[in-house]
Structure formats: structure tokens, C-alpha cells
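## tool: complex_structure
## caller: assistant
## args:
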Amino acid sequence: MTSKRAKKVKEASSKAQAVASFSQDAKAAMASAKMDTAPAKPKVGFYGITGCAGCLLSFIFNEDEILDLVNAVDLKAFPFIKEVNPDEQFDFIFLEGLVADAEDLEVAKKLRANAKVLVALGACACTGCVPAYRQFSLKENYEHLLYRKEAHLQDVKPTPVDEHIKVDFYIPGCPPDKQQIINFIKQALLGKAPPAYTSPVCVECRRNGNACLLDQGKPCLGPITVGGCHAVCINGGMECWGCRGPTTDMNLGLMIKILREKGFDDKFIQDRMRTFVGLKLPMLERVIHGEHNT
Amino acid sequence: MANITLNHITKIEGHAKLNLGIDKGKVTVCELSATEGSRYFEGLVKGRQYFEATEMTSRICGICSCGHVIASISAIERAIGFSPSLGTMQLRRLLTLGERIRSHATHLYFLALPDYLGYESALAMAGEFKKELKIALGMMKVGNHVVSAIGGRDLHPVSAQVGGWLKWPSKEQLQELAAELQGVMRSAQATVKLFASLKQQPFSTDGNWYSLHDDIYAMLDGSFLSPTSTFEQHDYHAFIKEHHEPYSTANFVVKDGKRYFVSSLARLNNNADQLLPKAKLALKQSGLKLPSVNPFDNNLAQAIELVQAIEHAIAICQMHLPAEEYTRPAPRAGNGIAAIEVPRGTLWHEYTVADDGTITFANIVTPTAQNLYNMQEDVRKLVPQLLKLPKETIIIEIEKLIRAYDPCFSCSAHFLEVNWV
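## result:
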């Protein structure tokens, strides 16, 4: 492996790990956001770039708590449901969506400049989610759909926001667990850096008493995926597709081996693993071709 | 009045812009465009297995994710020649109704109502109109609970699959949902009363309306029809043409060169005689005259559909629906087209599947894509009748019109940046 490629993989891996954790800088930013604003309510903005609005809805769909919650903060901007959204400095900006065109990029940079703490809200912002799977799709599959003629509307590579701007915290999931968003805000109001969940999905899944779907021959990615979702998909009968991103200590080689034993071919395994978090698995191709074990 | 340029609408499901030029009382330019970053879902599912499209295309839209799930399942089942059981169909209806409840409640109270009450947002209304917001949140909660109980999750539900359900709700669960739904029936009726009391801009669209028409109030099947024509879902390509505007990502869909709209109002125009008793009464009491060609009436139509959806969902929860074991049907080569009614109108999914189950073609047409052309031409028609009003009022009225369609960039219209030339 060339050193340039190694560096790229290393960078991508460290960003992948960031999904499950956060930096010391983020802790400091959290402290300063709290300090600068106390005792005033922290100024908060919820924004979206290209996405499905599901993560913003997940916040709003805290039906019992939402009215109190928006009283506990100074909710200054939320273009989804607000007409007036001032362009100014915020303590916290929650950003949904991925960068898919030049305008997204411009907005993401501007929001970063406006935010003391920037939180990537949901899978698109954290990993690129399904839209970023285009990077692994054959060009002939989608190029006939490329019909944007004006230069300023041209696509950029579909990418999670941390490819372009510094992210302080990640709330992963497609969409995130709605209680998780509330918990984050509660912790933030106390000036604490909310702890990131790091165990794999299997921990919660077993606690819920689910029968193991992998044992039943389904291509469940729970063992290599960060939990914190209460294993909600498996509770509903569906195997984990990995939307919350890989765990830092995953054994990718073993996961692939098990899936092969269950009868899945390499194309299926690769496609499935890349659907939500392909950009956070830069080592996948090497591992699947046996160049590397983990 | 001098030239006006309205420019740059953004937000909710992506961003939209409205370029409007006015010269001597005439509209010279009117371009409404969705400018959201493209996501190419139709390309992304190519090469994937027939049972994988559902999980992926659900990500097109958060609030309509159940719609995309059911439309993709139906189209793929038609492609592989599988007919779902009656029980499976009832649960699919229930899932879709739960979504209709939460979506209409969210749109009516959080997006549409603030315009009428003179607030910048629903949150700003919380002081004076807390009761109304609680009514909205109560219905959203029950709608969401129906979706999560049946579909496994609030958004992007997982339990509905090609062939049936991975998990079947228990009788107790259905009874619990029925009780919760009963509990918000009065909220829905109050919503009809509230929206019937709002003063609407007199306006008529020149577009025709289309919706499904089935043997029950339009949901998951039926012919696609207007007062002047009817066609079957599999004839989609002979009937609907798409063209692409250079300034937009969205497809404009025209029928024989004519534009049309899909929505709650379109459904009501075509199917009001199939409403259940409480919804029929609500319609009567609302004073809404059908058929209506005033898109502003879509808000009231959604309110009436809230009553209908709750009533219908209760009826399904009270049915005897014995659990069915899930088996994934085997693939078979074929093409399938399915249209279903989602909160914002008719949604189309189409797939071609190869012998080994690989998807080789996909086509997805959303309600907003179908409505975009009509919305744009409505704006063109509305503006001249507003020109005597103050500029701010003109913008509010344009926003109200766009929002009444509940487009997937709906709240986008909440973000009109205006350059007065």
C-alpha cells in the first residue's frame, strides 16, 4: 500500500471512529458554549442540507417534551418550521443532511462559522447515508439521471459533512433515536459533553431478548455497528444495515467470514455494508480480498 | 408596480426557489424549482436485490417514508408476480393511515397555520395557542405510535416487506392503538372546525386534479382518474410524460401536455362519497364545496382526511387479523408499477427485476414532482390578482399557496428571500 493511500485510509478510519466519540476540542467547545451563555439560554439552530428531514422530524416528534424543550433553549433558527432564522452566532447548531451540491457546501461552511458547537445530526451528516452510496454505485446506473445543466446546480461528490467542516459531536442513526436527541440537549444544558454510545447493536439486541438474526441466516450487521438505537430494527424483525456506523473495535474480517458462511456472496456483502456507511469503511475492499484481517 | 423578483426559497425536504419577474402588472418570468442536491435513488437501487429497494427508497422522505416503503413493496410484488394476503393489505393500510395522521397534523399546525394566525412559527404561537399545539402534538403522537407499533419504527419503518410482515402486531397492541385513535378523534374534528373558520384567498387553479379511485376511500390501489379521464396504473407510461427543466432537479409531469395536481383535495374531489360517516359529517359541517379547484382548500381537505384516517384506522384495529408467518417470495423476471395515495398525493414506484432478483430499472415519481408545474402556474396566475396589496402581503399569500400544496420542499416556502427590484 502506498503511503499516500495509507494516510487516506488512516484519516478516513479516524473520522469513522469519530462517529462513535468526540474530540477533546469538542469538550472544550461545549464548556465554552455553556460558560459564555450562562445564565442565558443557549442559542440553538436546527438546519438541514440535502436529506429527507427525518432527523429534524425526530427532534420534533418528541411530542410530550418538545414544547418544554424549546423553552429551555433559545431556539433561534429552524427553517423547517420557522420563518425567521437570523444569520448570527449560535451556541449549538444541529445540522441534518449531507453535502451533495455546491450550495450544501456553502451552507455547511457558513453554519460552521456561525456555531460554537456543531452537531452532525443523523446518518447523512455523520456518514453520508444512502445518498453517499452513489460513490460505490456504477456511474451507468445513475448518469442518465444527471440532468442539471446550470453550473451552480452541479453535483459534488455526496459526502458526510466532516469531509468539509469540523464536527464537534455526532448523533448517528437513520434517523437518530428521538430520545437520544433530547438527552443530548439535556446534557448540553448542563454544560456536559454527552457521552457517546460505543457498544455494538448486539448488546441492546440481546438485552431486548431478540433471537439472533445472524443465527437465522440473515445478513445482520449488528456485531460491527454502534448501538444506542435500542436495536429498533431487529425488534421490528429487520436485520441491522449498519446505519449508525462501525464500532471502533469491529472485527470486519470475521464479520465477512460469517456472512460468507451464511451463503452471502462478496458483492452482496459489500453492497450491504456500503449502503449506509460505505465511506466509513475505507478498508472494506482490502479486507474482503484478504489483504488484511481486520 | 415595478418589477418584482422573488428569489430563493429553501427548506424542508431540500431547497426550492421562485424566480418571479413582473412588468407593468404582467408576470414575465415565473420559475418555481426544487434545487435540492440530487440523491439519485433510482440509480442507487439498480444492481441491488428486489428485497433491498424498500429499505433504501424509504430514505427519500422522512415524513412520507411509509409511503415509499409500501409503494416500493407493491411495485416489486407486481414485478415478481406476487399477490399479498388480505391481512397484509390491511396492515399496510394501517401503516399508511398512521403516516397520514402524523403528516397532516404536522403540516396543518406547524407549517400552514402560523401564516393564517400571523406568527412566524408554531413555536411562536405557543403562548396564545398552546391548546392548538397540544392538539397537534397529540395527533402526531398517535400517528407516530401507529407507525412504530406496526412498522417497527417512527420513520423509515422496517417490518413491512415484499411478501408480508416481518412482525405481526398482537391483538392487544391493535386494541391499544384503537383506544389511542379514539382519544384523538375530537382533536381531528376540532381541526376541521379551525381550518373551516380560516379566511381563504379566492382563487382557482387551471390544472385538473387526479387521484386514485378504489372501492374504498383512495389508499393503496385503484385507477388514476380525473373528471375527464381514467387510466389504469400499468398504463402509466402512455399517460404521464416527464420533462426536465434546466433550472431544477424535479421532473415536471404532464398528461397530454396538460398539467394536473394530486393532493388531499384531489382525493376528496374524486372520492368524497366514500368517506366514512364521521368524516362525511365533518365535510358537511366544514362547508367545503366539492369539487374545489382552489388549492388553498387543500388544508381543509387534509383536516377532513384526519377524521377519515382516524376513523378508518380504528376500524382496521378492530378487525380480526390473525398473525401470518413471513416468507419472502422468490424472485421472477418482470416489471411492476404501483401507485398509492400518500399524504401529499399520488406516489408512483416502478421496478424491473431480473430472474435472479436483481433490480435493473427503477422509476419514482413523487407527488411534489407532479405538482411542481401546477404550483408554478398557480403562482403566475395568483400574483396579478394581488398586485394592489403591500409587498409583504403578496409574499405571504404566495407562500401560503405553495404551502397549501404541502410540497416536499414545503417548509422551504417558509424561507422566501425576496429581492425587490
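## assistant note: Residues 86-117 of chain B form the longest helix (32 residues). The first strand of chain B starts at residue 5 and ends at 7. Handing back to user.
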